[in-house]
Amino acid sequence: MQVDGGCLCGFVRYEAEIDADRVAICHCNDCQVNSGAAFGLVAGVVDGAFTLLSGELKSFNKTAESGRIRKLSFCPNCGTRIHASTEDDPNAFFGLRVGTIRQRASLTPKVQVWCQSTLPWVPDIASIPKRDAQ
Fold it and tell me: Secondary structure of the chain in the HEC alphabet?
C-alpha cells in the first residue's frame, strides 16, 4: 500500500510502501517511553521503500530489548518520531510510525508484540469513559 505523511510541524514529508498486514502494536518499554504512550503503533515498510520528500531526519541509536541496535529517526524541529530501522540487518523490521501516516485511519493493527510489557490497564481501555473532545 502506498502511503505518505510527515511530522507535526510539516518540515518532514515522506512517501513509502507499507505492508498493511504488518501493522503492529508494540508494548515494549522503549516504545512506551519514546512514544509517551502505552504502546507504539508501527507499519512495516516493504523492502526499504521509504523516500524522504522534504526536510531531514535526525537519528538516535538505541539498543532494543532484543539486543539489536535500532536507529530511531525523528524530525529535528518538532521531535516527531518517523521510523525505526536496524542498519546492520536489511531484513530486520523497518517500522514507520502509523501516527505520521496520512492514511492511518485505514490501517488496523494485525498483531501485538512485546506483550509481557503491556501496561495492566490497556486490555480494559474500551471500558474507560469516552468524550468526543476534551
Answer: CEEEEECCCCCCEEEEEEEEEEEEEECCHHHHHHHCCCCEEEEEEEEEEEEEEECCCEEEEEECCCCCEEEEEECCCCCCEEEEECCCCCCCCCEEEHHHECCHHHCCCCEEECHHHCCCCHHHHHHCCCCCCC
Q: What is the pLDDT of residues 1-52, one digit of tens each?
A: 999 999 999 999 999 999 999 999 999 998 999 899 999 999 999 988 999 9
Domains of the chain are 2-118 (2.170.150.70)
Is the per-residue pLDDT at 90 higher than 80?
no
Lookup: cell for 119: 501496561
Q: pTM score, two decimals? A: 0.89
Q: Which residues, 6+ apart, have CB-to-CB distance to 34 below 8 Å?
A: 40, 72, 81
